[in-house]
Amino acid sequence: MGRSPLRSALREMVIDEEEFFDPKFDFDFTDLKDTEKYYRGGEVYERPCGWKRYALKVLDKYPDGNAWLGERGFCTTTDSKAGEWPVSYHGTSKIGAQGIIISQFKAGPGQVYGRGIYSTPYISEALPYTKSFISVSTGKNYQVVLQNRVNPQYREKHNNSLYWLVPIRDGLSERQEEEIVEKAIRPYALLLKQL
Length: 195
What we know:
The protein has helices at residues 5-11, 17-20, 94-102, 123-126, 174-184; strands spanning 27-28, 38-40, 43-45, 52-55, 87-92, 108-111, 114-119, 133-134, 141-150, 156-158, 163-167, 185-194. It has 195 residues and is α+β, with helices and mostly antiparallel strands. Strand 6 (108-111) and strand 7 form a beta hairpin. The protein is globular and about 45 Å long.
């Protein structure tokens, strides 16, 4: 049996798939349509229906444990777990996703609501920020979005909560910025969708 086109496109995303991905937590949302409301971190969670999720290796990665992830194992629940952070989406490019997965988010220049890292709780709002790519191995066109958890203590909500900003002020050292990012926003999956 051959590789799936999405798996082939994923292999083009990073240098070492075994180092960065955790396939036992992958999930195929491509044919799902939600009929219930889901919550993560006490906020509505819009599941990425229509997308294939490739889980990143994040269990035990951070010094503060795994509560932020709302560990569920292999079960799906509609409610939040104690200590978990809400889910957000960050539209990006193939190269952008690779850089974020290998290192972490970096603050962009000042935008509409200030300097920092932007994401949204709605995957449809992340789509205009994606840059599609053509897979070398399949010849097909894909979009990429990162699925994240955002620490509500570090997040600002803007435009009726359509956009979430982790503000990072100017003048911080690179290490100080990295420390804020690690405490504030953590990608835990890469989402791919064939166009």
